[in-house]
Amino acid sequence: MRGIFGGLTGALLREQWRAQRRYTLTAGVLVTLAVALATFAAASWATREAADAVVWEAFGYDREHSAEFSLWTDGQGFLDGEPWDGGWHDTTPEALASAVEEAEALGVDPLTMLSTDVRIRGFDSVVFVESPVSGIPQTLLYQGASPASGQIALPATLAEELEVDIGDALTLTGLARDGVPAAEPVSVEVSGLTRVDPDPYWREPMLFAAPEDMPTLARLSIQAMVSEDGTRTAPYYAQVRWDGADVPALSDAEWGTDETSGFVWDVPTSVNLAVGGAILLAVTAVAAALAAGRAQGEERTRWVATARALGATREDLLRAAALEGVVRGLAAGAAGLAIGWAAATVPVAGTHLASDPLYGPSVAVLPWPLVPVLLSLAVVIALVISLAPARWATRVEPSAALKPTGPLDLRTERAGRKASPAALAVTCLAALAVASADALTLLPESRLWELTVNTAWLVAAGAAIALAIVALRAAVTPMARLLEATRRPSLLLAADSLRHRTGGTFPAATALLLSAPLTVFAAQTAITVPSDGDAAVATWDRVVSELLPWWLGGAVLIAAGGLVVGLAEWMGRGRALREAATTGALGLDRHGRQIAAIARVAAPMTLGLLAGAALGLSASALLEAMEALAPGPGVPSWETLTVESGRSLVAALGIVAAGAVGVGVAALFAARGVDARSPQEAARLAR
């Protein structure tokens, strides 16, 4: 280690640190932010998986086979005069018991779970009732015992809300339906309390009952119908799950060995935001470094030219930059791991401290194999950030050390090829055509076709975003003209910067990349919220409550994006200060210089935010159009389309409002970057 840092490379490394201390620290913060988000996403996901494992094992969702049955309390039910078919395999309690006995005879250990739904008097929501034939697993039982006939066990938090305890009585009721005889309420005794999920997936609480009580409780179900002789009847369901050999008696109702269960867990919004945010912000962190790389390269040219004059080769300089990146990546990666894990632990530990009857881990879980992966991610990002300015700076000739300044002449560099809007549009349309063929069920399903369609969706999304970024780049010039039309000196300066520099593309693209997917998910969430009939106020209240996590999470995510943009501005502070010194000498005061810096960042970022919301709304509308055109029963009415459009617009407006936080964060950094009281101070800070 001493040999690495003690020779020429070490001397160059120390000089880089002295000359570029601000850039090194800022780049380290960018890497830390990206790794912290990635760690938070990984830890949140792993913690969620660890909590799920308890329930998956308790309910048998992790078993190889699953057979699904429906049973009737009082004979086949009829709906509008027609026998009702719920899509599950109809059976009787006797036939089900015989099939389970056959499975046991084959040496397997089947787990049978019965389920229905009821209402609790004094509690508004419908609740599920589960009945494990072998009793409640001890991992889920908090206090008391598994219910016997006439008893139920309920979540500890629900018992607290209802102010009941073990030994108290509850009254279960059914839902009245037109044309269906009413069901008599059922009184039950509380036998035990069950553990609850600290981050619940079920919208309704879950009760547990004895198997022999399930027909009685199922008569209270919201799915109650009329039997052939005019009495009330209702379906209830049985799932048999097992590992090992196939069971012939269960084969007709089996879902197949490739699908363990029809039950699919939802992923919390926080995890979705963390995963998406980690990916997008890692990309924008690298883009920020590349955006600031040329400016940093120009700032390094003086001492680089001196080093070249003293005998350092281009390879020596790049080697020093690479070593700087590795050291920065390891340090920032370790800090990001600690911050991300701590951020994921806080809500988990907080819920366990607040309430005891919770299952799952009490701190965040971070699988050890992910640690080297995340550290490698940090090193890769840091290497890109370090080598970008070094690549520009090492182009300087040693003779530049003799000049008053060391500008980097890049006029001979070949210009990169610009993306063709027409090519991007054609690519996007072609990919959408492939994806639409599957959405409209025009082609047969297969594994290869499914992979092709998923790839087509990704290509279409990427091409659409790239096309939007190209459009944003073209829109920066007209935006500069609008600023010039104000005739205010500070905005004229901002317009000049936007017109002659590509820096406006980065904040605009960052806002677009973050707001577009957020708008899609928020709009789809708003559309899928079920309507509450004529209760329009209640419906909008529920829509807003469903959108609130996306709006709050979006504010945090776009604020992190604004931080990345602000840090990119901070890395290029030297150029901004030199401009401030020049304009200050020409008469622009400190306040005007700060307004110019804010406008240079806030205007394109706001443009990107609006463009991202528009792109997200368009993508959401496209998804709904494909669903409406796909073969199936019914066509959405104009009223339905109007309601969905209104909800989508509200979702998009919320994302735009949340994004204002990110614009403010970026603007704050931009203003601080040129915060010099005089032109002389700005010139001194620029050095």
Automatic annotation (TrEMBL):
It is found in: Cell membrane. The keyword Transmembrane applies. Its main location: membrane. It is a multi-pass membrane protein. GO terms for molecular function: transmembrane transporter activity. One of its GO terms (cellular component) is plasma membrane. The chain crosses the membrane at residues 23-45, 273-292, 329-350, 370-390, 422-443, 455-483, 504-527, 547-568, 601-623, 649-671. Residues 278-398 form the ABC3 transporter permease C-terminal domain. It comes from the Bacteria. Keywords: Cell membrane, Membrane, Transmembrane, Transmembrane helix. Belongs to the ABC-4 integral membrane protein family. This is FtsX-like permease family protein. It comes from Demequina mangrovi. The lineage of its organism: Bacteria, Bacillati, Actinomycetota, Actinomycetes, Micrococcales.
